[in-house]
Amino acid sequence: MKLERAFTRRNFISKSAVATAGTVITSSLAADPAEKAEVLKVGLVGCGGRGTGACRQALQADSGTRLVAMADMFSDRLDGSLERLLAIPAVSERISVPADKRFVGFDAFDQLLASGVDVVLLATPPHFRPVHIEKAINAGVHVFAEKPVAVDGPGIRSVLASCKLAKKKKLSVVSGLCLRHSYGLQELVHRLHDGAIGDLLSLQANDYRGSIWYKERQPDWTDMHYQMRNWYYYSWLSGDFNVEQHVHFLDVCSWAKGAYPIKAVGMGGRHVRTEKKYGNIFDHHSIVYEYADGAKLYSNTRQMKGCKSNMSAEIQGSAGRARFSERRNGVTIDAKGKDLWVYRGEGNDVYQTEHDELFASIRSGKPINNGEYMAKSTLLAIMGRMATYTGQEITWDMALNSKEVLGPEKHEWGPAPAVRIAMPGLTKFI
Fold first, then answer.
1. pLDDT tens-digit series, residues 313-345
2. Distances in Å between the alpha carbon of 395 and those of 10, 289, 383?
Protein backbone atom coordinates (compact mmCIF):
# COMPACT_ATOMS: atom_id res chain seq x y z
CA MET A 1 0.00 0.00 0.00
CA LYS A 2 1.35 3.42 -0.97
CA LEU A 3 0.08 5.70 1.72
CA GLU A 4 1.64 9.00 2.68
CA ARG A 5 -1.23 10.78 4.38
CA ALA A 6 -1.38 13.40 7.06
CA PHE A 7 -2.47 15.32 10.13
CA THR A 8 -0.36 17.86 11.95
CA ARG A 9 2.63 16.74 13.96
CA ARG A 10 1.31 18.58 17.03
CA ASN A 11 -1.99 16.73 16.88
CA PHE A 12 -0.27 13.44 16.17
CA ILE A 13 1.80 13.63 19.33
CA SER A 14 -1.16 14.65 21.47
CA LYS A 15 -3.38 11.88 20.11
CA SER A 16 -0.89 9.09 19.50
CA ALA A 17 -2.38 7.11 22.37
CA VAL A 18 -5.62 6.89 20.38
CA ALA A 19 -3.73 5.48 17.43
CA THR A 20 -1.32 3.16 19.12
CA ALA A 21 -2.46 2.31 22.65
CA GLY A 22 0.89 2.08 24.37
CA THR A 23 3.26 -0.28 26.08
CA VAL A 24 6.92 -1.10 25.32
CA ILE A 25 10.77 -1.37 26.00
CA THR A 26 13.74 -3.46 27.19
CA SER A 27 14.98 -3.29 30.73
CA SER A 28 18.61 -2.65 29.74
CA LEU A 29 17.81 0.25 27.41
CA ALA A 30 14.79 1.75 29.08
CA ALA A 31 15.06 4.08 32.00
CA ASP A 32 18.57 5.51 32.23
CA PRO A 33 19.07 8.62 30.05
CA ALA A 34 22.80 7.99 30.11
CA GLU A 35 22.17 4.89 28.05
CA LYS A 36 20.29 6.68 25.25
CA ALA A 37 23.30 6.58 22.96
CA GLU A 38 23.57 2.81 23.28
CA VAL A 39 23.45 0.88 20.03
CA LEU A 40 20.21 -0.93 19.32
CA LYS A 41 21.00 -4.20 17.58
CA VAL A 42 18.35 -5.04 14.99
CA GLY A 43 17.54 -8.45 13.55
CA LEU A 44 15.53 -8.77 10.32
CA VAL A 45 13.32 -11.87 10.09
CA GLY A 46 11.82 -12.35 6.65
CA CYS A 47 13.84 -10.75 3.86
CA GLY A 48 11.24 -10.10 1.16
CA GLY A 49 10.23 -6.69 -0.10
CA ARG A 50 8.26 -5.71 3.00
CA GLY A 51 10.94 -6.94 5.36
CA THR A 52 13.64 -5.10 3.46
CA GLY A 53 11.56 -1.93 3.50
CA ALA A 54 10.88 -2.26 7.22
CA CYS A 55 14.59 -2.68 7.88
CA ARG A 56 15.44 0.47 5.93
CA GLN A 57 12.83 2.39 7.88
CA ALA A 58 14.08 1.01 11.20
CA LEU A 59 17.63 2.10 10.42
CA GLN A 60 16.42 5.55 9.36
CA ALA A 61 14.33 5.93 12.51
CA ASP A 62 17.25 6.01 14.95
CA SER A 63 20.89 6.86 14.31
CA GLY A 64 21.90 4.35 16.97
CA THR A 65 20.42 1.34 15.22
CA ARG A 66 22.61 -1.36 13.67
CA LEU A 67 21.49 -4.25 11.51
CA VAL A 68 23.50 -7.16 12.91
CA ALA A 69 21.61 -10.32 11.91
CA MET A 70 19.20 -11.57 9.24
CA ALA A 71 17.02 -14.66 8.89
CA ASP A 72 14.98 -16.12 6.06
CA MET A 73 13.87 -19.48 4.72
CA PHE A 74 15.96 -19.00 1.58
CA SER A 75 19.53 -17.81 1.14
CA ASP A 76 18.88 -16.04 -2.17
CA ARG A 77 16.20 -13.86 -0.57
CA LEU A 78 18.46 -13.00 2.36
CA ASP A 79 21.41 -12.18 0.11
CA GLY A 80 19.25 -10.07 -2.19
CA SER A 81 17.82 -8.12 0.73
CA LEU A 82 21.26 -7.45 2.17
CA GLU A 83 22.51 -6.27 -1.20
CA ARG A 84 19.59 -3.84 -1.58
CA LEU A 85 20.08 -2.45 1.91
CA LEU A 86 23.81 -1.95 1.43
CA ALA A 87 23.04 0.07 -1.70
CA ILE A 88 21.14 2.69 0.36
CA PRO A 89 23.67 5.41 1.32
CA ALA A 90 21.59 6.64 4.25
CA VAL A 91 21.84 3.32 6.10
CA SER A 92 24.66 1.29 4.57
CA GLU A 93 27.27 2.33 7.15
CA ARG A 94 25.13 0.92 9.96
CA ILE A 95 24.84 -2.56 8.45
CA SER A 96 27.21 -5.29 9.58
CA VAL A 97 25.87 -8.78 8.96
CA PRO A 98 28.79 -11.23 8.61
CA ALA A 99 28.22 -14.67 7.13
CA ASP A 100 27.81 -16.26 10.57
CA LYS A 101 24.91 -13.91 11.33
CA ARG A 102 22.95 -14.84 8.19
CA PHE A 103 20.57 -17.60 9.18
CA VAL A 104 18.58 -19.73 6.75
CA GLY A 105 15.88 -22.37 7.17
CA PHE A 106 13.15 -23.27 9.62
CA ASP A 107 15.43 -22.71 12.62
CA ALA A 108 16.76 -19.38 11.34
CA PHE A 109 14.71 -17.32 13.78
CA ASP A 110 15.93 -19.25 16.80
CA GLN A 111 19.53 -18.77 15.68
CA LEU A 112 19.00 -15.05 15.11
CA LEU A 113 17.44 -14.62 18.55
CA ALA A 114 20.33 -16.47 20.18
CA SER A 115 22.86 -14.28 18.36
CA GLY A 116 22.01 -11.29 20.56
CA VAL A 117 19.60 -8.65 19.24
CA ASP A 118 17.59 -5.90 20.95
CA VAL A 119 14.82 -5.52 18.35
CA VAL A 120 13.37 -7.96 15.82
CA LEU A 121 11.50 -6.98 12.67
CA LEU A 122 9.05 -9.80 11.90
CA ALA A 123 8.10 -9.94 8.22
CA THR A 124 7.79 -13.65 7.44
CA PRO A 125 4.55 -15.22 6.17
CA PRO A 126 1.89 -14.63 8.88
CA HIS A 127 1.72 -18.30 9.91
CA PHE A 128 5.01 -17.90 11.79
CA ARG A 129 4.13 -14.65 13.58
CA PRO A 130 2.62 -16.05 16.82
CA VAL A 131 5.56 -18.27 17.68
CA HIS A 132 8.08 -15.61 16.70
CA ILE A 133 6.36 -13.00 18.88
CA GLU A 134 6.21 -15.46 21.78
CA LYS A 135 9.88 -16.35 21.57
CA ALA A 136 10.99 -12.74 21.15
CA ILE A 137 9.02 -11.55 24.19
CA ASN A 138 10.29 -14.45 26.29
CA ALA A 139 13.82 -13.45 25.28
CA GLY A 140 13.25 -9.82 26.33
CA VAL A 141 13.43 -8.41 22.80
CA HIS A 142 11.38 -5.54 21.34
CA VAL A 143 9.12 -6.44 18.40
CA PHE A 144 7.96 -4.89 15.17
CA ALA A 145 5.30 -7.30 13.86
CA GLU A 146 4.02 -6.96 10.31
CA LYS A 147 0.32 -7.51 9.79
CA PRO A 148 -1.48 -9.83 10.11
CA VAL A 149 -0.24 -11.49 13.29
CA ALA A 150 -1.87 -14.93 12.92
CA VAL A 151 -3.93 -17.09 10.57
CA ASP A 152 -6.19 -18.91 13.06
CA GLY A 153 -7.82 -18.66 16.48
CA PRO A 154 -5.08 -20.46 18.42
CA GLY A 155 -2.55 -18.08 16.90
CA ILE A 156 -4.55 -15.07 18.05
CA ARG A 157 -4.78 -16.41 21.58
CA SER A 158 -1.02 -16.91 21.59
CA VAL A 159 -0.36 -13.33 20.42
CA LEU A 160 -2.71 -11.86 23.04
CA ALA A 161 -0.90 -13.80 25.77
CA SER A 162 2.53 -12.78 24.48
CA CYS A 163 1.60 -9.12 24.32
CA LYS A 164 0.20 -9.25 27.84
CA LEU A 165 3.59 -10.56 28.96
CA ALA A 166 5.30 -7.79 26.97
CA LYS A 167 3.48 -5.21 29.08
CA LYS A 168 4.81 -6.78 32.25
CA LYS A 169 8.33 -6.88 30.82
CA LYS A 170 8.07 -3.31 29.47
CA LEU A 171 8.84 -4.37 25.92
CA SER A 172 7.66 -2.48 22.85
CA VAL A 173 5.37 -4.27 20.39
CA VAL A 174 4.54 -2.16 17.34
CA SER A 175 2.18 -3.38 14.62
CA GLY A 176 2.52 -3.12 10.86
CA LEU A 177 -1.11 -1.94 10.63
CA CYS A 178 0.38 1.23 9.24
CA LEU A 179 -2.85 3.16 8.56
CA ARG A 180 -3.08 3.86 12.28
CA HIS A 181 -0.02 6.08 11.77
CA SER A 182 -1.53 8.21 8.99
CA TYR A 183 -1.81 11.76 10.32
CA GLY A 184 -4.86 12.42 8.16
CA LEU A 185 -6.61 9.26 9.24
CA GLN A 186 -5.82 9.95 12.89
CA GLU A 187 -7.46 13.36 12.55
CA LEU A 188 -10.46 11.81 10.82
CA VAL A 189 -10.95 9.21 13.54
CA HIS A 190 -10.51 11.83 16.26
CA ARG A 191 -13.29 13.91 14.68
CA LEU A 192 -15.56 10.89 14.33
CA HIS A 193 -15.05 10.03 18.00
CA ASP A 194 -15.96 13.64 18.79
CA GLY A 195 -19.29 13.15 16.99
CA ALA A 196 -18.58 14.84 13.64
CA ILE A 197 -21.16 12.69 11.84
CA GLY A 198 -23.21 11.53 14.83
CA ASP A 199 -23.73 7.86 15.60
CA LEU A 200 -21.91 5.52 13.20
CA LEU A 201 -24.59 3.39 11.55
CA SER A 202 -22.80 1.58 8.74
CA LEU A 203 -19.25 1.16 7.52
CA GLN A 204 -17.83 -0.14 4.28
CA ALA A 205 -14.34 -1.53 3.66
CA ASN A 206 -13.36 -1.99 0.01
CA ASP A 207 -10.25 -3.75 -1.28
CA TYR A 208 -10.50 -4.33 -5.02
CA ARG A 209 -7.17 -4.95 -6.71
CA GLY A 210 -5.58 -6.94 -9.52
CA SER A 211 -3.52 -10.10 -9.60
CA ILE A 212 -0.27 -10.53 -7.69
CA TRP A 213 3.07 -12.33 -8.03
CA TYR A 214 3.61 -16.04 -8.61
CA LYS A 215 6.85 -18.08 -8.52
CA GLU A 216 7.21 -20.82 -11.13
CA ARG A 217 8.16 -24.19 -9.68
CA GLN A 218 11.80 -25.20 -10.11
CA PRO A 219 12.99 -28.82 -10.64
CA ASP A 220 14.73 -29.07 -7.26
CA TRP A 221 11.83 -27.75 -5.17
CA THR A 222 9.96 -30.07 -2.84
CA ASP A 223 6.26 -29.50 -2.23
CA MET A 224 7.14 -27.53 0.91
CA HIS A 225 9.65 -25.41 -1.02
CA TYR A 226 6.97 -24.65 -3.59
CA GLN A 227 4.36 -23.66 -1.02
CA MET A 228 6.84 -21.56 0.93
CA ARG A 229 7.93 -19.72 -2.22
CA ASN A 230 4.27 -19.10 -3.07
CA TRP A 231 3.09 -18.64 0.50
CA TYR A 232 0.44 -16.06 -0.39
CA TYR A 233 -1.74 -18.70 -2.10
CA TYR A 234 -1.95 -21.07 0.87
CA SER A 235 -4.28 -20.23 3.73
CA TRP A 236 -2.10 -21.97 6.31
CA LEU A 237 0.68 -19.52 5.49
CA SER A 238 -1.17 -16.31 4.58
CA GLY A 239 -4.62 -16.70 6.13
CA ASP A 240 -6.10 -15.94 2.67
CA PHE A 241 -6.03 -12.38 1.33
CA ASN A 242 -9.02 -11.29 3.40
CA VAL A 243 -6.61 -11.69 6.31
CA GLU A 244 -3.25 -10.94 4.71
CA GLN A 245 -4.15 -7.66 3.00
CA HIS A 246 -7.72 -6.59 3.69
CA VAL A 247 -6.95 -6.49 7.42
CA HIS A 248 -5.80 -2.86 6.89
CA PHE A 249 -9.23 -1.47 6.05
CA LEU A 250 -11.05 -3.79 8.46
CA ASP A 251 -8.80 -2.40 11.17
CA VAL A 252 -9.55 1.19 10.11
CA CYS A 253 -13.30 0.62 10.31
CA SER A 254 -13.32 -0.89 13.77
CA TRP A 255 -10.85 1.76 14.97
CA ALA A 256 -13.31 4.40 13.76
CA LYS A 257 -16.24 2.55 15.31
CA GLY A 258 -14.39 2.03 18.57
CA ALA A 259 -15.58 -1.57 18.79
CA TYR A 260 -15.31 -4.97 17.13
CA PRO A 261 -18.24 -6.85 15.55
CA ILE A 262 -19.96 -9.67 17.37
CA LYS A 263 -20.79 -11.82 14.32
CA ALA A 264 -20.33 -12.20 10.58
CA VAL A 265 -21.90 -13.91 7.59
CA GLY A 266 -20.62 -13.82 4.02
CA MET A 267 -19.79 -15.48 0.76
CA GLY A 268 -16.71 -15.98 -1.36
CA GLY A 269 -15.00 -18.33 -3.75
CA ARG A 270 -12.65 -18.91 -6.68
CA HIS A 271 -14.09 -17.52 -9.88
CA VAL A 272 -10.97 -16.50 -11.81
CA ARG A 273 -8.08 -17.85 -9.77
CA THR A 274 -9.04 -21.49 -10.30
CA GLU A 275 -5.78 -23.10 -11.44
CA LYS A 276 -3.86 -25.47 -9.17
CA LYS A 277 -0.98 -23.00 -8.94
CA TYR A 278 -3.20 -20.65 -6.93
CA GLY A 279 -3.25 -22.98 -3.95
CA ASN A 280 -6.46 -22.87 -1.91
CA ILE A 281 -7.24 -19.18 -1.30
CA PHE A 282 -10.31 -17.46 -2.72
CA ASP A 283 -10.25 -14.60 -5.23
CA HIS A 284 -13.22 -12.74 -3.70
CA HIS A 285 -14.90 -12.34 -0.30
CA SER A 286 -18.03 -10.40 0.63
CA ILE A 287 -18.85 -10.24 4.32
CA VAL A 288 -21.41 -8.46 6.49
CA TYR A 289 -20.22 -7.93 10.05
CA GLU A 290 -22.62 -6.80 12.78
CA TYR A 291 -21.75 -4.79 15.90
CA ALA A 292 -23.48 -5.14 19.27
CA ASP A 293 -25.47 -1.92 18.66
CA GLY A 294 -26.79 -3.21 15.32
CA ALA A 295 -24.43 -1.20 13.10
CA LYS A 296 -23.09 -3.09 10.08
CA LEU A 297 -19.66 -3.29 8.47
CA TYR A 298 -19.86 -4.28 4.79
CA SER A 299 -16.56 -5.78 3.66
CA ASN A 300 -15.82 -6.44 -0.01
CA THR A 301 -12.57 -7.78 -1.48
CA ARG A 302 -11.55 -8.95 -4.92
CA GLN A 303 -8.27 -9.85 -6.63
CA MET A 304 -8.95 -10.15 -10.36
CA LYS A 305 -6.95 -8.87 -13.30
CA GLY A 306 -8.62 -6.33 -15.57
CA CYS A 307 -11.18 -5.15 -13.02
CA LYS A 308 -11.62 -1.73 -11.43
CA SER A 309 -9.50 -1.09 -8.36
CA ASN A 310 -10.86 0.57 -5.23
CA MET A 311 -9.17 0.67 -1.86
CA SER A 312 -11.19 2.77 0.54
CA ALA A 313 -13.31 2.94 3.65
CA GLU A 314 -16.64 4.78 3.93
CA ILE A 315 -18.61 5.47 7.09
CA GLN A 316 -22.24 6.58 7.26
CA GLY A 317 -23.38 8.36 10.41
CA SER A 318 -26.66 9.77 11.63
CA ALA A 319 -25.42 13.28 10.74
CA GLY A 320 -23.22 12.75 7.68
CA ARG A 321 -20.57 10.51 6.20
CA ALA A 322 -16.78 10.13 6.11
CA ARG A 323 -14.40 8.62 3.58
CA PHE A 324 -10.80 7.51 3.44
CA SER A 325 -8.91 6.46 0.33
CA GLU A 326 -5.34 6.47 -0.96
CA ARG A 327 -5.79 9.26 -3.45
CA ARG A 328 -4.77 12.85 -2.75
CA ASN A 329 -7.29 14.70 -0.56
CA GLY A 330 -8.93 11.35 0.07
CA VAL A 331 -9.70 11.97 3.75
CA THR A 332 -13.07 13.76 4.00
CA ILE A 333 -16.09 14.38 6.20
CA ASP A 334 -19.40 15.48 4.70
CA ALA A 335 -21.53 16.45 7.71
CA LYS A 336 -25.10 17.69 7.41
CA GLY A 337 -25.34 21.47 7.48
CA LYS A 338 -21.57 21.99 7.28
CA ASP A 339 -19.01 22.55 4.53
CA LEU A 340 -17.15 19.51 3.25
CA TRP A 341 -14.05 18.93 5.40
CA VAL A 342 -11.00 17.72 3.52
CA TYR A 343 -7.79 16.92 5.33
CA ARG A 344 -4.98 19.08 3.90
CA GLY A 345 -2.56 18.98 6.81
CA GLU A 346 0.93 17.65 7.08
CA GLY A 347 1.62 14.46 5.16
CA ASN A 348 3.66 11.53 6.43
CA ASP A 349 5.10 8.23 5.29
CA VAL A 350 3.11 5.85 7.47
CA TYR A 351 5.70 3.08 7.15
CA GLN A 352 8.43 5.36 8.43
CA THR A 353 6.31 6.83 11.20
CA GLU A 354 5.58 3.44 12.77
CA HIS A 355 9.32 2.83 13.14
CA ASP A 356 9.98 6.35 14.34
CA GLU A 357 7.48 5.74 17.13
CA LEU A 358 8.89 2.30 17.95
CA PHE A 359 12.46 3.46 18.43
CA ALA A 360 11.45 6.67 20.18
CA SER A 361 9.55 4.57 22.71
CA ILE A 362 12.56 2.38 23.34
CA ARG A 363 14.86 5.37 23.85
CA SER A 364 12.42 7.21 26.11
CA GLY A 365 11.51 4.25 28.28
CA LYS A 366 7.83 4.75 27.44
CA PRO A 367 6.87 1.45 25.82
CA ILE A 368 4.23 1.11 23.11
CA ASN A 369 2.12 -2.02 22.94
CA ASN A 370 -0.20 -2.43 19.95
CA GLY A 371 -0.89 -6.04 20.91
CA GLU A 372 -4.61 -5.85 21.56
CA TYR A 373 -5.71 -4.09 18.39
CA MET A 374 -3.29 -5.91 16.10
CA ALA A 375 -4.58 -9.25 17.40
CA LYS A 376 -8.27 -8.29 17.41
CA SER A 377 -8.18 -6.74 13.92
CA THR A 378 -6.49 -9.89 12.64
CA LEU A 379 -9.21 -11.95 14.34
CA LEU A 380 -11.82 -9.76 12.63
CA ALA A 381 -10.36 -10.75 9.26
CA ILE A 382 -10.10 -14.43 10.28
CA MET A 383 -13.73 -14.42 11.42
CA GLY A 384 -14.72 -13.16 7.97
CA ARG A 385 -12.71 -15.88 6.26
CA MET A 386 -14.34 -18.49 8.47
CA ALA A 387 -17.75 -17.16 7.41
CA THR A 388 -16.91 -17.29 3.69
CA TYR A 389 -15.23 -20.69 3.88
CA THR A 390 -18.05 -22.38 5.82
CA GLY A 391 -21.07 -20.39 4.64
CA GLN A 392 -22.18 -20.16 8.27
CA GLU A 393 -22.71 -17.30 10.69
CA ILE A 394 -19.55 -17.00 12.77
CA THR A 395 -19.53 -15.14 16.08
CA TRP A 396 -16.57 -13.34 17.62
CA ASP A 397 -16.37 -15.89 20.42
CA MET A 398 -16.48 -18.79 17.96
CA ALA A 399 -13.55 -17.36 16.01
CA LEU A 400 -11.50 -16.52 19.10
CA ASN A 401 -12.04 -19.94 20.68
CA SER A 402 -11.74 -21.95 17.46
CA LYS A 403 -9.61 -25.08 17.75
CA GLU A 404 -8.68 -25.08 14.07
CA VAL A 405 -4.91 -25.02 13.53
CA LEU A 406 -4.12 -24.35 9.88
CA GLY A 407 -0.41 -25.18 9.88
CA PRO A 408 1.45 -28.53 10.07
CA GLU A 409 2.58 -30.09 13.34
CA LYS A 410 6.21 -29.87 12.25
CA HIS A 411 8.09 -27.89 9.64
CA GLU A 412 10.50 -29.66 7.34
CA TRP A 413 11.53 -29.61 3.72
CA GLY A 414 9.72 -32.32 1.80
CA PRO A 415 5.95 -32.96 1.94
CA ALA A 416 3.65 -29.99 2.43
CA PRO A 417 0.18 -29.68 3.97
CA ALA A 418 -2.58 -31.04 1.75
CA VAL A 419 -4.29 -28.44 -0.42
CA ARG A 420 -7.98 -28.41 0.44
CA ILE A 421 -10.18 -25.76 -1.13
CA ALA A 422 -13.02 -24.64 1.12
CA MET A 423 -16.56 -25.37 -0.09
CA PRO A 424 -19.19 -23.16 1.60
CA GLY A 425 -21.95 -25.32 3.06
CA LEU A 426 -19.65 -28.33 3.19
CA THR A 427 -16.55 -27.03 4.96
CA LYS A 428 -17.11 -27.31 8.69
CA PHE A 429 -16.27 -24.79 11.38
CA ILE A 430 -13.78 -26.24 13.84
1. 999 999 999 999 977 789 999 999 999 999 999
2. 40, 9, 7
